[in-house]
Structures are given as structure tokens and as C-alpha cells.
Design a protein that fits this description.
Layout: E1 2-5, H1 11-20, E2 28-32, H2 35-47, E3 53-57, H3 58-70, H4 81-87, H5 98-115, H6 133-158, H7 166-175, E4 184-187, H8 195-202, E5 207-212, H9 227-230, E6 235-238, E7 240-241, H10 246-256, E8 271-272, E9 282-286, H11 289-302, E10 309-311, H12 316-319, H13 327-334, H14 344-347, H15 352-362, H16 365-377, H17 381-391, E11 403-407, E12 416-421, H18 428-437, H19 445-459, E13 462-469, E14 483-486, H20 501-507, H21 517-528, H22 533-545, H23 550-606
Parallel strand pairs: 1-5, 1-6, 2-3, 2-4, 4-5, 7-8, 9-11, 9-12, 10-11, 12-13, 13-14
Helix pairs in contact: 3-7, 4-5, 5-6, 5-7, 7-8, 10-19, 11-17, 13-16, 22-23
């Protein structure tokens, strides 16, 4: 059975009721998405007296089958880049930090393989996961070496020579083709299942139920797949949301229509039956860690009276990368205080430029986020983070928080009375530009689909009100008291950097390039074509708003011509004045010299004795 359920439609309640109505004595397995969902599910099943339901996550299930039986030791936090480089004794070349870049890709290759349904590493093409041009060039150059070292590291884990990762024992579990002793297996959040666990699930003889929401798939970057689309089961749809009203439901449906730009739009009906009118929990949601942290900094800086805030997933997860590098390490690198850097990888970098080069070749988004924050706030960071941590409350006191901060990934399954979105989600305008300006083969439809899903998931976290940036709103969407529009700042007042140098250069090839003699001559030629003060400013402002207006263009050119003519006349007048002054000066100098010469000759003749 496949249950495709919209946000807030009661997926968990449906699954619990399904389990309750199974024959007495049935052995039932419920697979939860993560540990927090697992603990919540255990509580709910117990409240219903369903003690015969076993609740596990994919990893906890695999752990019992693999780790216990093989006496493996776990590398709880996984391997850092520098640890892999040391374990494999990786060798670099003349390029800086080649060994670390290779180690980073080995780590990602292992994650890719362990989450896949393939039995051999060589059955995968790691290049399929790389999008950045610089990273692709690097990986292509070193592909065979990366592949061989990936296999070597996996072999070391398999033999127990080194500690194993969580992803490794999940892979080992899948390869072992386990037969699970259950009559019913209920697989929740199926839209974000790993191919490895989906393979295990589909091979079981039990009655299988997979539950999820096709449009909530947001973990493709972890190599998850939409299992709902891959499971050819009898389908049932839950289209009524008891979380929010019809206005929010209509907004969610309009956002999903953005998928028409990537040829992936499917009509979906969402009936909003939520009737909540209270505002107790407030949340700020962002697409990225960077967007969220910047908004949190802005919030605590402007609202000094706020006493308590809360970050879903712990505040430290936003200031540290997965491998342990912190904002402080990056800041110390910028300030050339190398003795204070704790992370070995960061310490190996001579400066921020080297770190950025490493980021470009590895697509390390977390480190990239930290570099952006350091560039933006510099030495203010320690005090800012200190302020945030002082106001941050523990999970047990979450209800005391005046504002909750979270990325969409961390608040999955959560709901709040009021939600405010950070303006870092994809907009329909951006989608249109991407799909019209790029060639079809350059468009990553899967990634764009997930970007739209992120906005959909964010909007559907609210129970009552949504505060959404104007640029993210569907065109001509009707006004609603539950949907508050955040007006976009005028361009000249925007301070957030919303682009990269490379992105600008895609459109303006010479952006940020050094000034040259050729450009200087080009400017002279442009000026010489005829370019008038206030009139020119007025016309240029109007022309900026309407660049295709030929009347404004001619007016601006006439203004330029008038200014040029005025300048030339002024230069001519100055030249004539200078010439007249020079002629007078020559006359008086000549006259004075002649008189002096005559006086000298007279004295020479009349006074010979001297």
C-alpha cells in the first residue's frame, strides 16, 4: 500500500490506526525517519496500547544486525577530511592541498555508495554528483585515484582495521539481504528514503506500507530518492490538511505550480481544514544555514529585549561544519592567528583565498557558508555568537522561546503557529530565468524540483499565519489575513549579497576584472559620442527602468552631446586665453632682456678700467 499524504494530513495518525486494526498477534515494524520521530512514535504507539509494534530507524535496525554480530566499533561523528588523508597516506601534487581535496571527495564517494542500492563502488559514477565546474575538472583528473582509495577505505572498515561509519553498516545491512521477521512493515517519510534502505524494504515478504508526501522530498543532496515514485503499490491519497486553513492550502498549491517550469507539474488538491487562531509559537525558517544565521544575528541585534530563542537541532550545528571546523577557525584564519586554529584542515590553509579555492574544488557548502559570515561580520562574530548562545534555551524549555529558528531540513515534521520565511528560497522569477536562459542539458531538474519542495515545506509548517517575502509570492495571489507579505527592500537599500562573482560573470563576462587600456579607450569613445547634468541623471534613471525606450535613449544621448559640446567650448576658451597670456609674456620678457643687454654694453665701453 502507498499513502501519498499532504502536509498536516495526519500521516502518523493514519499509520497508527492501520497498525491498530491489524490481526491480533501480528508482528509490525514501523520505520521512522530519524531518532526524534522514532521516540515520538514509540510514545504514540504505547498510548494506543500497541506494544507489539517495533519502532526503529533504518540505522538502528541495521545496527542490531551488523554491528553487534561483527563486533565493529563505530566512528560516531564520521571521518574528517584530514583523518582520511592520514589514514590513506594520500599524496598531493604541485597543486595546493590536493591530498585534502581528494580526501573530501573520497568521503563523499563513500556516502554516495553506502546510500545507493549498488553492490560495488565501481558500479557508480561519482561525477554524476558533481555540479561545480572546478570540482568536476578536479575529480575528472584524479578519478581513478579517488576510486581506488575509496575502495581501500571501505575495505579497511569491512575488515575492522578501522572504525566504521553509520552509513557503512547500513550498506553492509543492505548487501546482506536480510529477511526481517515481521508481518507488516510501515515505512514513514518514504519520499526521502535512501536507495539502500528502499532495496531492503522492497525485498521483504511482509505486507508493505509506504507513507510520505511526494512534494516533501528535500534530501536529494544526501542521495535520498523518492521511494513513493519507485514503489509500484496500490495508492491512497490524503488530501485534507488539519494543520492550516484553505488560504494557506491555496498558497501551497500555487507554489507547487512552479514545477510547470521544469515540466514536473502535477495537479494536486489540498483541502485546508485547520482552524487555529492562536499565536504562541513563532518561527523563522530559512533554506540555508547561512540565511538563517544571518537572520538570527539581525534579530538579536535589533531586538535587544528578547530573552529567549531556540534553534532546532542545537545552535552549535549552525556554527560548526560536520567535520568540526568552526566559525572561529575561519575567523582566525582571516586574522592570521594560526596558533588559535583548532581544525587541522583550516590550519593547513595559508589564507582565506586558499580555503576558498579548496571550497570551490570540493563543493563544501558548510565551509562556504562560514567564509561568507566571516567576510560579512568579521571580528564582531565572537560577541554575536555569545549573545545568541546566552539567549538560547535547551529543548526542554523550548516553549519559553520568543522565536524559534530553523532551516527547513531541521524542522521537517514540525509545526508552528506563525512562520516567517527568510528570503533565500527560490522564486518563480528565478526559475523562469534559469529555465529560459540555460540549455536543457544544463538544467538540473531534480535539484530545482527540490528547491520548490523546500519552499512548499516551509510554507506548510504554519498553523495560522505565514510571513512571506514579496518576491516568493505567486503572481496575483489574493490577499489573506493569514498571509502577510514582507515587502522587498529597494535595490539600493539591500545589503545582503545574493550572488557570487561567478554568477555575475555568467551574464557580464568582464565583471570584477582589472581595468585595461582597451577599456579606457572604450570609455573615451563612449564619451566622445556625445553625452547634460541634471537632465542626464533624470533620463538615465528613466532609461534604467525602461531600457528599451528609444525616445529616452535619444534624449540621453542628446544630453551627453550637449555636455560634450559645453566642455569643448570651455576648453577652447581656456586655450585662447592661454595663448594671449603667453604672447604678452613673451613681449615683456624680450623687452626686458634687450634693455639689460644695452645697459651692459654701455657700462663696458664707459668703464674700461673695471
Amino acid at each position: 500500500i502507498k499513502i501519498n499524504a499532504v502536509a498536516g494530513s495526519g500521516k502518523t495518525t493514519t499509520v497508527i490506526e492501520y497498525a491498530r486494526t491489524r490481526p491480533a498477534g501480528s508482528k509490525i515494524l514501523y520505520l521512522a525517519f530519524n531518532k526524534s520521530v522514532k521516540l515520538e512514535a514509540i510514545k504514540k504507539f504505547q498510548e494506543k496500547g500497541l506494544n507489539h509494534v517495533t519502532v526503529e530507524t533504518s540505522h538502528s535496525l541495521a545496527y542490531k544486525y551488523i554491528v553487534f554480530q561483527n563486533n565493529y566499533k563505530i566512528k560516531a561523528l564520521g571521518y574528517k577530511t584530514n583523518e582520511i588523508a592520514e589514514l590513506l597516506n594520500l599524496q598531493g601534487n604541485e597543486e595546493k592541498h590536493t591530498e585534502y581535496i581528494i580526501a573530501n571527495h573520497i568521503n563523499k564517494f563513500i556516502t554516495y555508495f553506502c546510500n545507493s542500492d549498488k553492490l560495488k563502488v565501481q558500479d557508480l559514477n561519482y561525477l554524476d554528483t558533481i555540479t561545480d565546474p572546478n570540482a568536476r575538472i578536479f575529480v575528472t583528473t584524479f578519478y581513478q585515484y579517488i576510486l581506488s582509495q575509496t575502495r581501500l577505505l571501505l575495505s579497511k572498515m569491512d575488515k575492522g582495521e578501522i572504525e566504521i561509519t553509520h552509513d557503512f553498516y547500513l550498506k553492509k545491512f543492505q548487501i546482506s539481504n536480510p529477511e526481517l521477521p515481521f508481518d507488516y512493515i510501515l515505512f514513514d517519510e518514504g519520499q526521502d528514503a535512501s536507495p539502500a534502505m528502499l532495496d531492503v524494504f522492497l525485498k521483504q515478504n511482509a505486507t508493505k506500507v509506504i507513507v510520505g508526501d511526494t512534494h516533501q522530498q528535500i534530501y536529494g543532496w544526501r542521495f535520498a530518492v523518492n521511494s513513493l515514485e519507485k514503489a509500484n503499490f496500490e495508492t491512497h491519497n490524503l488530501s485534507t490538511s488539519f494543520r492550516f486553513s484553505q488560504d494557506i492550502a491555496s498558497l501551497a498549491m500555487e507554489i507547487l505550480k512552479y514545477k510547470k517550469h521544469i515540466n514536473n507539474h502535477q495537479n494536486i488538491a489540498i483541502n485546508g481544514k485547520g482552524e487555529s487562531d492562536e499565536i504562541k509559537t513563532k518561527a523563522i525558517l530559512a533554506r540555508t544555514n547561512l540565511g538563517l544565521l544571518l537572520k538570527a544575528i539581525e534579530y538579536v541585534t535589533e531586538k535587544k529585549n528578547v530573552k529567549h530563542i531556540y534553534f532546532e537541532g542545537n545552535i552549535n550545528s549552525y556554527t560548526y561544519a560536520d567535520e568540526g571546523a568552526s566559525l572561529y577557525d575561519v575567523l582566525n584564519l582571516q586574522n592570521e592567528k594560526r596558533h588559535l586554529i583548532k581544525d587541522k584542515l583550516i590550519k593547513a590553509m595559508k589564507n582565506l583565498k586558499e580555503l576558498e579555492d579548496y571550497i570551490g574544488k570540493t563543493e563544501d557548502l558548510q565551509l562556504g557558508m562560514m567564509v561568507e559570515i566571516v567576510k560579512e561580520y568579521g571580528n564582531k562574530i565572537p560577541n554575536i555568537i555569545k549573545t545568541i548562545k546566552e539567549k538560547h534555551v535547551d529543548g526542554d524549555d523550548k516553549e519559553k522561546a520568543e522565536m524559534i529558528f530553523s532551516t527547513v531540513h531541521r524542522c521537517k515534521g514540525m509545526e508552528y503557529d506563525s512562520v516567517r520565511l527568510v528570503n533565500d528560497f527560490i522564486s518563480e522569477e528565478t526559475l523562469e530565468k534559469l529555465t529560459t536562459e540555460k540549455k536543457p542539458e544544463e538544467i538540473n531538474e531534480m535539484k530545482l524540483n527540490e528547491e520548490i519542495n523546500l519552499l512548499y515545506v516551509a510554507v506548510t509548517r504554519t498553523k495560522n499565519k505565514i510571513h512571506i517575502p514579496e518576491s516568493l509570492m505567486p503572481i496575483d495571489f489574493p490577499d489573506s489575513p493569514q498571509i502577510q507579505i514582507i515587502k522587498d527592500l529597494p535595490e539600493e537599500k539591500k545589503t545582503e549579497k545574493s550572488y557570487t562573482v561567478d554568477q555575475v560573470r555568467e551574464k557580464y563576462k568582464g565583471a570584477y576584472q582589472p581595468w585595461t587600456q582597451e577599456l579606457d579607450q572604450e570609455l573615451i569613445d563612449l564619451f566622445s559620442e556625445g553625452i547634460s547634468g541634471n537632465d542626464l541623471a533624470k533620463h538615465f534613471k528613466a532609461l534604467k527602468a525602461k531600457p528599451a525606450d528609444t525616445i529616452l535613449l535619444r534624449a540621453a544621448r542628446q544630453n551627453l552631446h550637449d555636455i560634450m559640446l559645453l566642455n569643448m567650448q570651455a576648453i577652447q576658451r581656456k586655450s585662447i586665453t592661454a595663448e594671449n597670456t603667453a604672447e604678452v609674456s613673451v613681449f615683456w620678457v624680450t623687452l626686458t632682456g634687450t634693455i639689460c643687454l644695452l645697459l651692459a654694453l654701455t657700462m663696458l665701453v664707459n668703464l674700461p678700467a673695471n
